[in-house]
Amino acid sequence: MDFSIAWQKINQMGRDFMSILPNLLFGVVVFVVFIFIARGVKSLVERLLENREQSVSLKLLLSRLSYVATLILGVLVTVTIMVPSFTPASLLSALGVGGVAIGFAFKDIFQNFLAGILLLLTEPFKINDQIQYKDFEGTVETIQTRATTIKTYDGRRVVIPNAELFINAVIVNTAYEMRRLQYDIGIGYGDSIEEARKFILEAVRGVDGVLTEPAPEALVVDLAGSSVNIRARWWINPPRRADIMGAQDRVLEAIKNTLTANGIDLPFPTQQILLHDQTEVTDGDRKTQREGWPAGEGDVPKSRATVRQEQQEAAQKAQLAQQATAPAPGAPAPVKQAAG
């Protein structure tokens, strides 16, 4: 068996490896240098953004992007050194064929990534803001390049893709320093609206945490079925969920105690049931049986029984009158005299 051909190939491979070994070693050294350069660029970006007003997530994103971009540049330079025949143009041409397939496969990932960058740049909300998206409401924990996580008020974590937050409506409850709260209070129809309004405003102004400017308000908003509804409105600062619940608790307690102490009725919803139990004699008589209509002044329509009785009496009188004028049985008929 002749091993000379195999030995020649192995020998050729060894010589080729030794010829490119300096390039390999130099490429490794260059890549290590680029790792330190990437770390330095990341630290530089962090220091440049340290005193600026950007959010923490945006600063983290920019520092990571600068680090990754520097590493990618280092990989391209290293490969070019190790393989002289390789150029970045050849890499782009190779990726051009599979770029379409990769784009379709990672469409959602790229969409969320771009949406995350836009959210971090435009900052419609920040970390620790309290937002509401559809059925989810809570405090923003992190804004990553793929998704945003919020912590609900009952202690659960919700992960929402950034594309959803970018293209849909999001309520930012803590976007401003103040927030207005309101609640409807029903008073009795027999109570004075002005007095109730005065007591409500006194109660709201005396609650700790309610702002004096803008001033609290008490507006009549509805004449309901069993009450006159007055809407109390007041402002608080800060507008976080815990502060809202605490302020509302104190305000409602103060309003209830103040109105009750001053004799203002707080009626609960009631319904009036009218039983249709009239007899034939009272059916339709507005003097004796009312179903929500006023009795009226002066004469009122007669009941159906009265009208029917009067019709019967009139018919009997007409019948008696007819019988009185009719001739008795067997009597000769009256003779008609001829005209003169």
Automatic annotation (TrEMBL):
Q: Per its UniProt entry, which superkingdom is the organism in?
A: Bacteria
Principal localisation: membrane
Topology relative to the membrane: Multi-pass membrane protein
What species is this protein from?
A: Hymenobacter coccineus
Leader peptide range in chain numbering? none
What protein does this entry describe? Mechanosensitive ion channel protein MscS
Q: Where is this region: Disordered?
A: 276-340
Output one GO MF annotation. mechanosensitive monoatomic ion channel activity
Mechanosensitive ion channel MscS domain: residues covered: 108-170
Q: Which residues cross the membrane?
A: 20-41, 61-83, 89-106
Please provide, in alphabetical order, the Gene Ontology terms of the cellular component aspect for this entry: plasma membrane
Per its UniProt record, what PROSITE patterns does this chain match? UPF0003
Do you know which Pfam families this protein is assigned to?
MS_channel_1st_1, MS_channel_2nd, MS_channel_3rd
Q: What is the lineage of its organism?
A: Bacteria, Pseudomonadati, Bacteroidota, Cytophagia, Cytophagales
- Keyword Nucleus attached: no
Provide the Mechanosensitive ion channel MscS C-terminal domain boundaries. Answer: 183-265
Q: Which family does it belong to?
A: Belongs to the MscS (TC 1.A.23) family.
